[in-house]
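Subject: design request, 334 residues
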């Protein structure tokens, strides 16, 4: 019986194979690039080419090239007011999509986003979320590509604790605390350290330092010198992270003497990791924050896909891991 069934199944399989159509590649749904004829205005955040912005530029440019959509870059030096003004400028051009940074917050952006969506413009956000607006317009392509901010701060803090920071130690958290959404990352860092028993002093980054991170150096030097028992410095500002090694050197500190947790992979940050002035830096994988919003725009415009929420960062880079990424960092990818 077993032999008969086996022969029957084998014969059926051969017959089915002979009758089956020849397999081949599926035909594409378009005759050209999916984003051909589309235009997207995209807010990049900082200044052209800086370490916390360049990978985002590269990712957006690569996505634009791959998908055939025209991407127009906008730079704000991280100013929320400039981001709002740029949105108005973009909306006046009536593009297919506008990619924004969430720094101004939900209330400030809400009337502008509504106006754009009512005009048929797709809006999506990167780097800093706008959760209330995303709830309203998710079905119209409003996605988010960026780190889960509070968790990102927690990850950075945990790396600092793993490096030896302990209960009773003094630490500085130098961050942006006056922006409700953006501050989540610095709060995640500081609150995680506080829960571990670390004595944390919070110092707010001014709008001037936010725009020109080199201004952080004298501020940090003065703080370090005024706090001889300081054991750690944390921040979730990519520009400031790159200037912390310079501040430590000017304050007379040696590599590893103060535990430092930061964010992003600016050239100065890479050097800081290599010479061990920096302990760990959160890797947001900024290239994805450029590539994915452009992809979101094209998919939503062409096929009416809803917004996608993608966490682009889930770990840190350290002196032990950074060297393997340097070739990609030099190309503006990581």
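Subject: RE: design request

Done. Sequence follows.
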């Amino acid at each position: 019986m077993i032999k008969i069934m086996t022969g029957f199944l084998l014969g059926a399989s051969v017959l089915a194979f002979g009758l089956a159509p020849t397999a081949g590649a599926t035909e594409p749904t378009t005759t050209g690039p999916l984003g051909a004829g589309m235009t997207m205005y995209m807010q990049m955040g900082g200044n052209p080419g800086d370490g916390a912005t360049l990978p985002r530029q590269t990712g957006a440019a690569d996505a634009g090239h791959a998908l055939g959509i025209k991407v127009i870059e906008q730079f704000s030096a991280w100013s929320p007011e400039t981001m709002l003004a740029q949105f108005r400028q973009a909306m006046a051009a009536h593009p297919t999509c506008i990619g924004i940074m969430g720094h101004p917050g939900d209330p400030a952006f809400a009337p502008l986003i509504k106006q754009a969506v009512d005009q048929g413009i797709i809006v999506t956000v990167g780097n800093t979320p706008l959760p209330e607006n995303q709830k309203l317009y998710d079905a119209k392509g409003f996605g988010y590509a960026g780190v889960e901010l509070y968790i990102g701060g927690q990850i950075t803090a945990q790396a600092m604790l793993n490096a030896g920071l302990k209960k009773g130690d003094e630490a500085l958290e130098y961050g942006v605390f006056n922006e409700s959404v953006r501050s989540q990352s610095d709060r995640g860092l500081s609150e995680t350290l506080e829960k571990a028993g670390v004595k944390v002093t919070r110092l707010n980054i001014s709008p001037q330092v936010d725009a020109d991170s080199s201004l952080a150096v004298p501020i940090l030097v003065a703080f370090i010198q005024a706090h001889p028992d300081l054991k750690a410095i944390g921040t979730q500002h990519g520009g400031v992270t790159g200037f912390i090694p310079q501040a430590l050197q000017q304050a007379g500190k040696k590599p590893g003497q103060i535990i430092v947790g930061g964010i992003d992979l600016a050239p100065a940050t890479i050097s800081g990791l290599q010479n061990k002035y920096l302990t760990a830096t959160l890797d947001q994988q900024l290239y994805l924050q450029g590539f994915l919003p452009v992809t979101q725009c094209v998919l939503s415009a062409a096929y009416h896909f809803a917004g996608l929420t993608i966490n682009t960062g889930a770990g840190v880079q350290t002196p032990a891991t950074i060297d393997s990424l340097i070739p990609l960092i030099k190309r503006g990818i990581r």
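Residues 1-21 have pLDDT under 50 and may be disordered.
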